[in-house]
Amino acid sequence: MMDTTGGSRIVSAHRQIAASPDQIFALIADPSQQPRWDGNDNLAEAQPGQRVRCSGQVFSMTLTNGNVRENHVVEFIEGRRIAWLPSEVGHAPPGHLWRWELEPVGDTATTVTHTYDWSRLTDEKRLIRARGTTPEMLQASIARLAAIAEAQ
Length: 152
Prior knowledge:
Elements: E1 2-4, E2 10-17, H1 21-29, H2 34-37, E3 43-45, E4 58-63, E5 68-77, E6 81-88, E7 97-105, E8 109-117, H3 127-131, H4 135-151
Antiparallel strand pairs: 1-2, 2-8, 3-4, 4-5, 5-6, 6-7, 7-8
InterPro entries: Polyketide_cyclase/dehydratase, START-like_dom_sf
């Protein structure tokens, strides 16, 4: 299921996955796993050993275009929620946020919500791409994440 909430600057998608929150969160909170399930085909690689454990951490990711992004973790609840603000290396984040929320459904399933929030985006160069981020793109990441988590 997909929906757009909060006007056109917050895009979200959600789906139930037949896996525990811990299994799913392990794939999200480990940046080296993110290229495996990225539905936008935007993430190339991240060095291992960057597993997120708390707010305030920064992890680096190489994009498919070769650029490196620093991701500033601003929300973190182990097994339930993680959100980060991407930025160019050494720069302040321009204000767009990626969030993952996991809600257990019984013992063997989890509702996963993926949100892209660009309501505070200040970088004019990024507005076109932000506007082009659709619920279907977020759903593609959830679908890939589900395939991996459900196969474990």
